[in-house]
Amino acid sequence: MATKVVLQFGKGRSKSITKRSNKYLEEALYNRLFKRGSSEISVRQHLNHFIKTSKRVFKWEVGLTLKKLRDRKLYYPALKLSETMAKRSMVKTVSDQSIHLDLVAKTRGIEEAENYFVDLPETSKNHLCYGTLLNCYCKELMTEKAEALMGKMKELNLSLTSMPYNSLMTLYTKTDRPGKIPAVIQEMKANNVMPDSYTYNVWMRALAAVNDISGVDRVIEEMKRDGRVAADWTTYSNLASIYVDAGLFEKAETALIELEKRNAFRDLSAFQFLITLYGRIGNLREVYRIWRSLRLAFPKTANISYLNIIQVLVNLKDLPGAEKCFREWESSCSNYDIRIVNALIGAYAREGQLEKAEELKERARRRGGKPNSKTWEIFLDYYLKHDDMKLAVDCIANAISTGRGNGDKWVPSSDMIGTLMGHFEQGKDVDGAESFLKIVKKSVDDLGKEVFESLIRTYAAAGRTSLMMRCRLKMENVELCEANKKLLDEICVE
C-alpha cells in the first residue's frame, strides 16, 4: 500500500502525493533521489533519471529536496535541480533566488555568483539576495568586497537582521581580527538589530581570542538579562569550550551541566560535544555516562558517534575502553568506516604496538575498509620515529597512490621530504634518493631548491656523477647557493 505523503500549506491547505495524476512523479522527489543512500553518485543518477522522464513535481517538493541536498553538502546536484526547475518555468521566489545564488557560489565560484546577482531583476535585490552575496564574500574571506557590500546595503536602507552582521563577524574571526567585533555589536545595538544565539557565540569567541574571559562572562550575563534570545545548547557548548581552552575546568563543567539541561530534543551533536568536552577536561566517568545516554537515545548508533567516543577514549589513554567500543561497532556496522579503524590503529602505533596496528589494517581490508591516506600517514609517522626509512618511503608511495577522499592529491610535507632526503644524504644513497624523488614527483610539482641541493650533496658524498643534473635544475628553475654550485661542477664532469 502506498504511503500517503502530505505537507501542510498554511491554514486549510495541503498537498497529497497519493492524489496526484500520472503526469507527476509517483513518489516524493526527495525520496526518489535518496532511494539508495546519499552518496553524490547515487543522487546524481536518480536526478538525471528524473530529469529525463519529464515528470512533474510540486514546488514544495523541490524546496524540501534542495534543503536536504544542501544539508548533505550535495551542491552540484542541488544546483542542477534548481536550474532544471527554472527551465520548466517553475516560478522562483526571492528566497529561491537567494538559495540559487548560494549554490552558484559554492559550485562555480564568486565571479559566477556575482554575474547571477547582477542579472537578477531589481525587485529581487532585497536583503535576502544581498545578504547571501555578503555571506559568500565572507566565506571566501574577501574582506574588502564584504565591507563594501555591507556599506551598500546600509546605503539602500535595506532591512537588516542579525544575519549579515553575523557573517561579517565570522569573517573577522577567521581573519584574526576579533578586535573589530565589539564595534559591530555596538552598531547592532545602535540600530536596534536583535541579536540571535549565533551573535552571542561569535561575540564570546572574539573576547576569548584576546583572553578576555571576564568579558565572556559579562556577555553570557547580558544574554540572560536581555531575555529576548534564549541560550540554547550551542551557547553553553561554545562557553564550555572557551573555559576548557582557558584551563578553567570547574567553570567548563558548570557550562556542560547547562548544555545537557538544554538538550531537550536529544540532538546528536549536543551529545557529541558533551563527550568531546568532558574528554578534554579528563572526566572519564562523565564521558561514559553521556555515551550511555547517547546509545539510549540512538540505538542505531551512527559511525560518527563511534568515531568520536573512540577518539576521546584514546586521548584519555583508555585503550581497553576504546577497544571495547570498537568491537561493539564492528559487530553491527553495515559500512566498515576506515576513519574508525584509523583511530584505533593510531592508538596502537603511538603505544608501539605495531603488530596490532598491522593486524587491524589487514582485518579492515578484508571487511571492505580500504586503507586511506590517513592510514598510511599513521604508519609513516611510526616508521619515521623508528628510523625505518625504507618502509616510510613505501607508506608515502601508498598515500600518494591512494590520494585524499575528496579526490585531491595527497602531498607529503616539506619537512617529511627533507627528513628522508637527509637520511639518503647521510647514507650516500643516490639510488634511494632518486627512487624517492620519482615517487614524490607524482604529487609534488615543485620540489624546491632545498631538495635538489640535498640531492647534489648526496651525489658528491657518494662520488657519483650526473650529466643531466644541470638540465634538471634548469627545468625546475632552481638557483643554487655558491657552495652547491661548486659541488654541481664536480658531479657534472664527463
TrEMBL record:
<dbReference type="GO" id="GO:0005739">
    <property type="term" value="C:mitochondrion"/>
</dbReference>
<dbReference type="GO" id="GO:0003729">
    <property type="term" value="F:mRNA binding"/>
</dbReference>
<keyword id="KW-0677">Repeat</keyword>
<dbReference type="Pfam" id="PF01535">
    <property type="entry name" value="PPR"/>
</dbReference>
<comment type="similarity">
    <text>Belongs to the PPR family. P subfamily.</text>
</comment>
<dbReference type="InterPro" id="IPR002885">
    <property type="entry name" value="PPR_rpt"/>
</dbReference>
<dbReference type="InterPro" id="IPR011990">
    <property type="entry name" value="TPR-like_helical_dom_sf"/>
</dbReference>
<feature type="repeat" description="PPR">
    <location>
        <begin position="337"/>
        <end position="371"/>
    </location>
</feature>
<feature type="repeat" description="PPR">
    <location>
        <begin position="126"/>
        <end position="160"/>
    </location>
</feature>
<dbReference type="Pfam" id="PF13041">
    <property type="entry name" value="PPR_2"/>
</dbReference>
<feature type="repeat" description="PPR">
    <location>
        <begin position="196"/>
        <end position="230"/>
    </location>
</feature>
<protein>
    <submittedName>
        <fullName>PPR domain-containing protein/PPR_2 domain-containing protein</fullName>
    </submittedName>
</protein>
